[in-house]
Amino acid sequence: MKTLCSVSTLARIFALSVLLALGQPAQAQTDPLPSWNDGPAKKAIVEFVQVTTTPGSTKFVPPAERIATFDQDGTLWVEHPMYSQVMYILESVPALVKAKPELAKVAPFSTVLEILKGDRAAIAKLTLPDLEKLAAATLTGMPVQTFEAEAKKWLAEAKDPRWKKPYTELTYLPMQEVLKYLRASGYKTWIVTGGGQDFVRQYSDKVYGIPPEQVIGTAGGTKYGYAKDGKPYLTKEPRLLLNDNNAGKPEGIHLMIGRRPTMAVGNSTGDQQMLEYTQAGDGARLAMLVLHDDARREYAYGPAQGLPATKVGAFTQALYDEAKKQGWTVISMKDDWKKIFTFE
Amino acid sequence: MKTLCSVSTLARIFALSVLLALGQPAQAQTDPLPSWNDGPAKKAIVEFVQVTTTPGSTKFVPPAERIATFDQDGTLWVEHPMYSQVMYILESVPALVKAKPELAKVAPFSTVLEILKGDRAAIAKLTLPDLEKLAAATLTGMPVQTFEAEAKKWLAEAKDPRWKKPYTELTYLPMQEVLKYLRASGYKTWIVTGGGQDFVRQYSDKVYGIPPEQVIGTAGGTKYGYAKDGKPYLTKEPRLLLNDNNAGKPEGIHLMIGRRPTMAVGNSTGDQQMLEYTQAGDGARLAMLVLHDDARREYAYGPAQGLPATKVGAFTQALYDEAKKQGWTVISMKDDWKKIFTFE
């Protein structure tokens, strides 16, 4: 009988079948950070994720320990000309004055009314104690649910002065890609912000994919009580529990997470301790700072711009030198980001 | 041609094949709570999980909102004759006195030394202010890492006075099954304890499958600083941020989670506000209390036993009446639990 196939032909058919079964040569991996230019920053992120998540790697990090913390203002979204939450505080003053008309002539409420009328120079009159007084007046004394509804309403309506968009659209697309890439690699992403915890929790899930329980911010106490119908509710109190700036960041991280981050990203002196604390751990750690050096597409403020530290926390020359000394990766918005905003 | 089968025979064979293809009558679903006797408590848990997780259910709870909070002492593990962390505090006094011998004659340290010598009556001498002083002395003033190592060491070596086992083995098997069942159903399980947050975080993952970031406890501030080699570290301060008992529980939940639980379990008056707060939400909510009514297998303390509230938080008659009024499920250890401890 004439055999259909010789052994060698069968062997070749078998081998070919195996190859076909194993599939095409691997497609080029989809770039998880398409808005990033090739460069040391992008490389640092991708390599960090790979070495910490590849089984057998000497720098493997067990999933439970994959914690990445992000400052928000100036790291995940725009913080100039002013923190959006400071705008919230200022824009909440008219309602306050409507309820208590005597405040209209009392500083700092009177100063704020001038600012809102267009007297931008009056901003310089506001001291830190003024801001604390305004924060206490506009962020505390009401039920939590009331605050949450007011914050949500303001966020839906307020527009930034430059691009005329809701603040929640001014997030940095390249950082959004980092958040998604980390989560897809088994990391938990946290926000660690000097901004108000209750405020940021109103949009963090929808805007960043970061749920309320993974937001650490400046936080005050609450007081438990009962409404007339017996239903319990919490009232925001002017009692500061955590000032989540500078050394407050590692303190807040210890309080709320109880683990040291493996990766931390910030942009100013207010993040220095968080980065130090992160890097002090064993094994692979990644610490990064976002440098605002792109006046055309965003804002330029940092040591190279020779701008003074005009707000709480800035990317000073000292911070830049510390970053170089400690091996923290500095991200240049100008060089590293192909696109900054989704809406460009 | 003689047909092998008539149409009716073929039909029967087809029908039989279909039945066989559909498989045997469904095996009884594996019982997720095998240590629970059938009864209203077990039923309440299973029904709650089913209605909140079955797509299409009118009481469906999206996975992100599936938060279940558990008191620890008396709910997840034994709390008699004394909270294990109080034992830790007392047993830490000798080391303190060794470092500062002058304390040996100073109350309450001298009282504790008497207690440890066997003078159990001396326990009654300790007031709440005494306990606070002892807590500050033994739980604060040291680096976080030092405290964590000391707590871990004590937990590994200490034995309870009745079963002579490590405290971490005195967890309630039926509650462990509830934790696992909830997590398998997409719930996140949290501990909300009056005990020290840093203390409980040393074993919560290994013992309960609850990671540090899902432990809320009584918590103090920390202070960031630098060691001689420049490495940063945190020191535990005697500055109370959160007293996680009574109204402190909803306050702690708001601070650390920022969501209302869908389910909460406690065992004493110290959990009342947490259960009220949980139940005040819309949709399906489950609030439960563990009643200690089994003197033979564990300890009996509660309204039916006529025992006075001898410790902070107890299952008083008032709490029992509140539970009935609010529709909270009372779990009877005697009737509902086939087995209490893994080691029985």
From TrEMBL, chains A, B:
One of its GO terms (molecular function) is hydrolase activity. Keywords: Hydrolase, Signal. The keyword Signal applies. Gene3D superfamilies: HAD superfamily/HAD-like. It holds the Pfam family HAD. Residues 1-28 form the signal peptide. The keyword Hydrolase applies. This is Haloacid dehalogenase-like hydrolase. It comes from Candidatus Propionivibrio dominans.
